[in-house]
Amino acid sequence: MKPKINGTEFGSITIEKKIHDYDVVIHLDGEVEKRKKKLSKAVYGSSHVVSLDEAKHVYEEGAERIIVGAGQSSMLRLSDEAADYFDRKKCKVKLYSTPEAIEAWNKAEGKKLIGLFHVTC
Question: What is the CATH number of the domain that holds 40?
């Protein structure tokens, strides 16, 4: 089941009326997990670039699409290696500002969807 995202403010995202004050990944089965930013920070010194290791953690076999909330000011980006990895998996990735990503998430249909939401800059 794809959970409904109720909204976001700088530093938090509300999913099914529960406030999460950290970045999240929403898996294919609807499970909400804290984003493993350390996988990217270890490589780039920042959580604003998604590393290959983080991409491998986020991706689930069978996923067709990933919606990325790139932050309130769209500061998050994919590394070239992460983008290539998703391409090889034939998984489309679309980055939006986090408020726009929430709108896209809530409108999206189909069950083969993953979400990654950065809640700060």
Answer: 3.40.1230.10
Give per-residue pLDDT as tens, 61-71.
999 999 999 99
Predicted TM-score (pTM) of the model is 0.96
How many separate domains does the chain show?
A: 1
Q: Domain of 71?
A: 5-117
pLDDT tens sequence across 30-42: 999 999 999 999 9
Concatenated DSSP letters for the chain?
--PPEEEEETTEEEETTEEE-S-EEE-TTS-EEE--THHHHHHHSSSSEE-HHHHHHH--TT--EEEEE-TTTT--EE-HHHHHHHHHTT-EEEEE-HHHHHHHHHH--SS-EEEEE----
